[in-house]
Amino acid sequence: MRHVTFRQLQIFAEAARALSFARVADRLHLTPAAVSFQVKQLETISGFALFERMGKKLVLTDAGEALFGHANVVLQALHDADAALTALKGLGGGRVTVGLVSTLVSSRRIRELQSTRETAIAARSSTRSSKATSIWR
Hints:
Elements: H1 6-18, H2 21-28, H3 32-46, E1 51-54, E2 57-60, H4 62-89, E3 98-101, H5 107-119, E4 127-129, E5 133-136
Antiparallel strand pairs: 1-2, 3-5, 4-5
Helix pairs in contact: 1-2, 1-3, 1-4, 2-3
């Protein structure tokens, strides 16, 4: 597995989650043929079939299941390394305060802001509400 690329592992892991080359292609902005080609190269490198192909349906083989676990560990380690280096640059976070008057903003927009706050990476946040305003930090 010495010559496997990060991109091949990323594509494989997405395919193992989605069990569809077409969905992976859409998510990663590739063609289904490009996804299939990268998976085939990974299969050649590993010496194992990673998926059973039944028409357009994919099923992980035992080798695919084993590689999927290790691929996730490697991808997470690379993500963690990137986050650590980003933090050293001082780009990993900060504080944003947003104040809204709830009577002037639609409840849909408030839910969108709450969702954004909840999914922010490496951000500490809190919500304070009163009758007239909602404040997110």
